[in-house]
Amino acid sequence: LADLQLDRQMQVSSFETWEELGEFAMMFTKAVAQAPYKRQQENTGFSFYLEKSWCGGVKVDRSGKGLFQVWKRQIQQFNRVSVEMAEAIVSVYPSPLLLIEAYEKCSSEQERVNMLANIPVHRGDGVTATCRRIGPELSRRIYLQMTSPDPDLCLDATG
């Protein structure tokens, strides 16, 4: 196995049960199926070029039209937050005020910290569709960003 991994640069995986092998085969097949889509998403032509829809800004008129898009982009500013994750959060809390009000209704600090953790995040369509959740770490970071009075707070620090 060491010869295969080091000299031939091959990946070697061992499995205890046939179920583990089946899960690995399913994961690998899904990754292969998604690869062309991911390559196309990353192919902008220039390494420094960002899509206009992301870096072009959002217009907000006097009636407030466009604020929802600003809120969604604010959530996307967090490290390791995808478009799908931001859409999941803003679908439940369509404005920062509604999120703050929901935090205020919680009975404990722990409930506030984990309030967003179980929001489902849907990604992809058809065979490659997945459903996961926001998770406790992002929920904690958003809670801290929305409620902390400390302007120097590091949201990605552990502990």
UniProtKB/TrEMBL annotation:
Entry-linked InterPro entries: EME1/EME2_C, ERCC4_domain, Mms4/EME1/EME2
Keywords: DNA damage, DNA recombination, DNA repair, Endonuclease, Hydrolase, Nuclease, Nucleus
Statement: the UniProt record of this protein carries the keyword Cell inner membrane: no
Subcellular location: Nucleus
Family of the protein in this entry: Belongs to the EME1/MMS4 family.
Domain ERCC4: from-to ranges: 3-104
GO BP, one annotated term: replication fork processing
Gene Ontology CC annotations of this record: Holliday junction resolvase complex; nucleus
Name of this protein: EME1 endonuclease
Source domain of life: Eukaryota
Taxonomy of the source species: Eukaryota, Metazoa, Chordata, Craniata, Vertebrata
GO molecular function annotations of the record: crossover junction DNA endonuclease activity; DNA binding
